[in-house]
Amino acid sequence: MKFGVVVFPGSNCDIDCYNALRDVLDQDTEYIWHRTKNLGSYDCIVLPGGFSYGSYLRGGAIAKVSPVMDRVVEFVESGKPVIGISNGFQVLVESGILPGAFLRNNNMKFICENVYIRTESISTPFTNLCGKGQILRIPIAHGDGNYYVGDETLKRMEENNQIVFRYCARDGEVTDASNPDGSLQNIAGVCNREGNVLGMMPHPERCMEEILEGRDGAVIFKSIINYLKGGAVNG
Amino acid sequence: MDKKPYERVGLTFEEYERIVKMLGREPNGLELNLYGVMWSEHCSYKNSKQVLRVFPTSGDRVLQGPGENAGIVDIGDGLAVVMKIESHNHPSAVEPYQGAATGAGGIIRDIFTMGARPVALLNSLRFGELESDRTKYLFENAVAGIGGYGNCIGIPTVGGEVYFNDCYRGNPLVNAMCVGIIRHGDIKRGTASGAGNAVMIVGASTGRDGMGGASFASVELNKESEEKRSPMQVGDPFLEKLLLEACLELFETGCVVGVQDLGAAGLTSASSETASRGGSGMDIDVSLVPRRETGMVPVEVMISESQERMLVIVEKGREEEVTGIFKKWGLNSSVIGRVTDDGMLTIRDGDEVVGSVPAKSLAEDAPIYYREYKEPSYLKQVGVLDERGLEVPDDLNGVLVSLLKSPNIASKEWAYRQFDYMVRTCTAVTPGSDAAVVRIRGTNKAIALTADCNSRYCYLDPATGGAIAVAEAARNLVCSGAQPLAATDCLNFGNPEKPGVFWQFRQAVSGMSEACRALDTPVISGNVSFYNETDTDAVFPTPVVGMVGVVEDISHITTQGFKEEGDVIVLLGENTQEAGGSEYLKVVYGLERGSAPKLDLDREKRVQGCCLELIRGGTVKSAHDCSEGGIAVALAESCISGEIGAKVELEGCGREDLLLFGEGQSRIVITVRQSDLERVKDAASRFGIPVTVLGRVRGKELIIDIAGQRGIQMAVKDMETDWREAIECIME
Predict the structure, then answer these.
(1) B585 with B475: CB under 8 angstroms?
(2) Which of A4, B170, B189, B687 is the most buried (most CB within 10 A)?
C-alpha cells in the first residue's frame, strides 16, 4: 500500500502530510512532483494544503492545469481514493472533480484556529472508522474557505450523501456561531458522487499527535488505510 | 538651495572627503551612490558600532556571532539554531502591508542564507493607542502583511508581542524574527573567495522597487521624505518559497562557496560584503542581471532592493548545476561576474567599466561616530511619583477588568489568529503562553522562543529597562521549560544625533549587556533602527530582545494555564509593591512615571534556576511569569488558560492595589501537587530565593484576599470574555 503526496510549487503542508503518514501511521509514502506523468504505483493520492502557485488568481486555479492533474483525474476515474486538504480541496473544486466554489472567509481575514466538525457521512473511504455523527476537534488555516454551491447541486449532494463534514459547536450542534468562515450550511468537507474523492478545509494531518493539537485527525487517514486493506465501508 | 551630489545620497561633506582620500580621486556618480547606501546607518552601523561592542557575543555554544546574516547557537545532537531579528519600521509606516510582509521575507532569507531550514517566525509590533483610524489601519495591515507572507511561504508565526502607546503613533515599529534549524556541517557563510569562482544572482528579477531603501531608513521621516521616497519593495512569498527550496537543494550539492541575500542596499551590499569578508574582489557586469523593467541604468541595478534575490558564489565550472536546480523551480539564475583577487569591486555595463572601488571600503570603512550623549531632561520629571496622591481604588475587580481589557494585556488572538502558527506540525506550544515551543524532529528536544521588551520601563530608565527586557525574555523561556541559550536584539531608537537619544541608546545597551552576561545568553545577532521619530517626538527606547532556549526533553514543556483542582499555587520570588512604570498606573491614573521596577540580576538568575530545576524534576504543572498587570493579571491569565478558578491569599501590608498590580521583577507563579510542596520549598531554600504558598487551584472564580480582606472575586468566564474580546471589539 503506497500513499503519494503531490507537491505543487507553493505547497507547504506536503511535508506535514508526508510525516503524518510515514512517521505517525508508518505508511509507505512518497512525494509526487507536479510534473509527474505516472501515478500507477500509488493507492491513495493526497493533495496537500498550502499556496500552490501562490494561490494567485484563486486558490487552486493555476494548480488545476499542472501536468499531474490530468493523471489525478485518471486516478479518480479508476476509483482509487484521493483526499484534498485545504488548498488541495480548492484544487479539486477548481478542477471540477468536486462541486462548488470558494469565497473569501466572511470576515475577510485568514483564520488559524481549532474548530469542531461533525461527521455527516460515515459511508466513505475516509470516515469508515468514525462513529455516526462523531465530533472531531481539528485545526483550520485558510483565508478562502467559504464554501459555496448552487441550490440544485446542493440538493443533489445531500441526496447522494456527499456532505461529509459540517462545522459545529463543541457539543456537535451545527450553529452560525460555530461556522468560522461563512461556508454554506457549515460545510467543511464534501465528497464526489462516487465517494472516492474527499475535499476538506480542516487539516487532519495537524492533529495526529498528543504533543500537537490532539489526535482527532488520525481517524481520517486510518479510515483510508482500513478501506485500502479491504475493510468495509459503512452503510 | 541646491544640494550637493553627496548630500543627495545622504553623505556629509566629511564623509565625502573620506571617500576622496581613500580612492585618491573623486568618485563618479555611480560610485558615490554605492557609498551613500553602504555608509548609511542601516548598513554601516556607523553610529552604533562602538556602543554595540559591549555586548557579550561569545560562549561555548555560540557557533556564529554577529557580523554574518544571522547568529548560530548549538543545541546539541549536532544541531544548531540560526536566528535573527530585524526592523522594518520605516517601510511599515508608509505602507504597512508590504512593509511588514517584506520585513518577514527579508529575515527569512537571512536564515536560509546560512543554510538553515526556517522553522518559526516571531514578531514584535508597536503602534499608537488604538484610537485613530490611521493607527487601526496600520495595525490591521501590518498584521495582514505578516500573515500574508508567513502563511504563504509555510513558516509558522508562533509568537511575538504587540504593544500600544502614543509614542508610536507616527512611528510604528515592526520587528520580525526568524529561527531556523541546521546541522553543524551545513552552515553556509556570506563569503566570496577563490579567484575565478562564479558570482551568480538567483531568484527574482530586478526592478526599481525600494531603491535607496537603506538610506531612506536612515533619515527622519518628514515631509521631504515623501518626495524622496522611492517605490516600496513588494513581497512575493510564493517566489521566496521557491527560492528557499531551490537554495536548500542547491546547498546539498556542495558547489556553493558563499551566499548572501540581497536585502538593504541590494546588489551593492551583497557583492561588497561577500568580497570584503573573503578578502577578495569581485568583477560584475550589471547588463547580465535579469530585469523586470526596461531602461534601468547601472546605478539602479546596483541599489535596487527588489525582494527574493540571492547572490551565490559558486565553484568555477559548476555553474550548470545551479542553473539546473533553479530551472526546476522555475527561477532565474545568471552568472553576473567572477571573484577576483584584487580586492576591488569592479562594475561593468557590458564592455564598459562604470565603477571600481575597493570592496572593503564600502563594507567596512564607513566612519565610526562617537556621538555626543547626555541624560535627557525629561527623566527628572517623569522619575517622580508621589503615591500618596493616588487614592487606592475601591473597586479592585473593576481595576482588574480594565487591565484585562487594556490592549497591552488583552489577548492578542485577534492578531495571531491571522497567522498560521501550526504549519510544519512542530508547534508544541502555540501563541498566548509565556513562550512558543517548537519541537525538533528526530530528537526528543524542543526549542522555546520569545520576543520581549517593555519600552515604558526603558523610557523611565533605559539601563534597567534594557536589562528587564533580557531578564523577562529568559524568564519566559524558563517558564516554558527551556534553558535560555542566546539572544538576538532589535534596537529601536530615535535620532542618534540627538544627545538625549544617544544616551538612552548607550544606557539600554549597557543594561542589556549586563543582563546577558548574568544570565549567560550572549547576543549572537541583531539590528539597529535609529531615526524612529517624527517632527515632534521620538519613540520610547525600544530594545526588543528575541531569545531562544532549549527544552532538553519534550516532557519538560510547561504552559501557563492552571491544570487541576487542588493544585497548590506557589510564588517563586517576592511580591513587592512597585508602582513605577506599571500598566496599572497608565490605565487607572493615566500616568507613565516613577522608577522602573528594580532588577536584581543575581536574584533573577536564582529564581529562574530554581524554576527550571523544578520543571525538569517533573514537579511543576504550570508556570507563568508576572509582568504587565502584576500578580493579579498573572493569576487571571493562568485561570483563563486553564479554564479553572483559584483561591489566593496575598500577604503584606500597605497598598492592596500595588500588591495586586505592581510589576516587581523576578517572580514566577507555579502550581504543584500538594505532595510536592516540600520539594519546592527545599529547592527555593537551596537557591536562596523567597517562596510563598499563595493558595489553591479551585472552583470557577478567581478569588484574591489581602490580609484577610476580599480584594478580587471574579468568574473566570467573565474575565475571559473581557480579556479575549477587547482587541477584537476595538478593531471590528
Answers:
(1) no
(2) A4
The total domain count for chain A is 1
* pLDDT score of A56: 93
H or E element at residue A142: strand A135-142
Report yes or no on A233 lying in a domain: no
Cβ-based contacts of B147 with chain A (< 8 Å): 110
What distance in Å separates the CA atoms of residue A115 and residue B111, rounded to the nearest whole number? 33
Residue B255 C-alpha cell reads as 558547489
| Contact between chains at B154 and A13 (C-beta distance less than 8 A) | yes
Q: Which domain holds residue B253?
A: 1-38+188-366
Q: What does the block give as the cell for B501? A: 537619544
B148 contacts on A by Cβ (under 8 Å): 110
Pairwise CB contact (< 8 Å): B423 & A16: yes
Mapping DSSP onto H, E and C, the string for B55-114 reads: CCCCCCCEEECECECCEEEEEECCEEEEEEEEECHHHHHHCHHHHHHHHHHHHHHHHHHC
Task: Give the number of beta-carbon pairs within 8 Å between A and B.
Answer: 82
| pLDDT-based confidence at residue B3 (cuts at 50, 70, 90) | confident
| Cβ(B629)–Cβ(B638) below 8 Å | no
Q: Domain count of chain B?
A: 2
This complex has an ipTM of 0.96
Instruction: Tell me the C-alpha distance between B107 and B125, whole Å.
Output: 15
Instruction: Collect all residues of chain B within an 8 Å Cβ-Cβ radius of residue A15.
Output: 424
Domain of residue A85, CATH code: 3.40.50.880
How far is the C-alpha of B71 from the C-alpha of B522, rounded, in Å?
10
Give the residue among B218, B327, B338 at the shortest CA–CA distance from B274. B338
How many angstroms away from the CA of B392 is the closest CA of chain A? 40
Whether A206 shows a pLDDT value over 50: the answer reads: yes
Which of B475, B483, B448 has the alpha carbon at shortest distance from B663? Answer: B475
Look up the domain containing A72 and give its range.
Answer: 2-228
Chain B residues in contact with A202 (beta carbon < 8 A): none
CA distance A66 to chain B (A): 13
What pTM value is reported for the model?
Answer: 0.95
Residue whose entry in the numeric block shows the C-alpha cell 517566489: B239
Name the least confident of A11-15, A130-134, B210-214, B427-431.
B210-214
Identify the closest residue of chain A to B237 by CA–CA distance: A54
Q: What is the pLDDT of residue B229?
A: 45
Among B344, B343, B339, B352, CA closest to B286: B352
User: Do the domain assignments include residue B671?
Assistant: yes
* Candidates B238, B419, B425; nearest CB to A10: B238
Q: What residues of B are labeled active site?
A: 42, 88
